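Sample A.
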Amino acid sequence: MKVIPTQNGDVAVAQAADVNSADDTKTASFKAALAQAEDLPTGVKLHKGETAKHVEGHAYYEITSGDREGMFINTSGNVRNGQAFVLVRKHGKEYHIYGTGKDRLVVGFHVPKKAANDSAPAPKADLSDIKLRKDEKIEPVEGHAYAEIVSGPRSGMYINTSRNARRGEAFVLVEKADFNFHIYGSGDDRVVIRANKREVD
């Protein structure tokens, strides 16, 4: 068998180039992962292939690539620090949903209102005739004829502020498919009103 030295040399050089190229790629990805890890707060770890960026003004990061892209990571330092969650904004509140099924935990927050100089304030509706219980406060829900009860024994419920026969009555709001359901009362006295959802920009 005859061996031609130049061919062996070419193969060796090609193999060395491939190894160097693979090493460069691994080194670059390792450096990127290391830089990402150094930027993350203590106790916060990403899955392989994930990147994240801090959400300004909040104690969490958004996962911007990888298998959990679009989720967020708690960086507050509290008991949920480092845990991933789904973020939902609804009716002036922000909900952080951790886990699924029976292990699901939903944590709600009020979203701070925009500064007065961000936009001209909308005219306030006259709610002087709406009777509240002791320690209750309400906040109008933009684009709807109801207000959310934000403190007191019925916190989380809503009050009808329209000019119809149910004005001033409290209800539970349920969203399902393309409809909102306003549930007044309970038991035999329960009344369920179905309303179309209205998109509010």
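Sample B.
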Amino acid sequence: MMRPPAQITLAEWDRLHERSRAAGRREPAFGGPLGRHVQDGDVGLLRLRFDNSPAALDLWNFLLTEEQRLFAARAAGRAIVGTMKDLGTVPVMAYSLPGVTAFYPDGAWWIPCIMEREAGLLAIADSLGIGESFCPVRAMLGAFESGAHFPEPDLLTCSVGAVCDDFSAIAQRLEKLGRNILWWQVPHRRPPDRGEAGVPLPGGLEAPLEQVALVRGELARVRAALQELSGRELSDGDLRAGIRAANGIRAVLRELRETVFRAEIAPLPALELLVAEMMALHFCSDRDAALEVLAGLLDEVRRRVAAGAGFGAPDAARVFWVNPVADLAVMNLLEECGGRICGTEFLFTHALDAIPRDLPPMEALARTALSDPMVGPAADRARRICADARRFGAEAVLISRIPGASHCALEGTIIADVVARELGLPTVEIEVPSVSNAVSPALVTRLTALVETVRMRRS
């Protein structure tokens, strides 16, 4: 029987988990009560409110056991690849080989949110000269130095070129601390000049043929490194199989988003949707399990939509959210203030688009990498945001600035201007630190004002 949708505390989830187990629910290997993660130091979970479905419990347990999977993979003799500043391309290649596990070291930027001061990662970064003026991804530097959150990778890759200056500085500091990094270049994407040969990219963009050729050559270097690491050829057939598997996960995520955004009443909270979308980047270090978790979540959402069940009121303000937040608790605030998610752009829309299957695999991967919204003009992002906001019926746009991130210092203003000009929608920018307790009242005020603006515009 489907539970009425609700957002519950960690303590309530643990009591519900006990009742579910007593009723005979079978759990995946990574299952268990959420409360156990607090005992491991994830005290930030105590501030969150969670979706009460078994599928959401699996999602959270899968996310919060990634560190264990990585250390288990190392103990089992699997090759570990860290794919820095790569949003969904190199992991597709790595998982095309047996015995290789890829992960996203940049994801350490959430550790201070989940563990708050318990991890001490920001203090380590401070001691290495990477202070608060940098993006919260500086926590990655602390995670590498502590060695407590993931094993030292056998291969460490990092895209360079048209990337965030903050991240480039942090990665270079990491290299100076003794890590050997395979840098691969992505140029700043531009439209083809008049008379210049261009090719279509996923997501409706276009780039010069020579830029795609450059990225294809850079990824060939990554391919060679993966082959050397694994001791076997990474054939085109292997890559096609890896692309097919990645596209399967992307298809589930696209349907999940479409179903949530178009529903009369929100069938999934903003927080769980953010966590689910992040799975596209590197499958949370287990591609097969990621697909099972996301498919379970999609099934739950389908059941809720069919039953007309969801969160909040049918007249909740329909908000398009731009950029991920450094503190997950802020995602809860939107619903508490009377809003709901109706569209997202969390910096990696290209990791949700299908990788072309009618092209040679390296060509397809090169085009996918070059369609990254962060390597092109902010106006490209803005146009896609406008198209999706129009398609999903969004009534407002919320832009969460990432503290210290050079790539979004002015992007928010550009996006807001384009949204106002093309759609006439109200926008608001907020800045969210890794732990938002001190600024929570101000955030509530701004979110409430946005919701009230939407309601006034309806009348």
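B remarks: Residues 244-458 form a domain with the Rossmann fold fold (CATH 3.40.50.11900). The radius of gyration is 21 Å.
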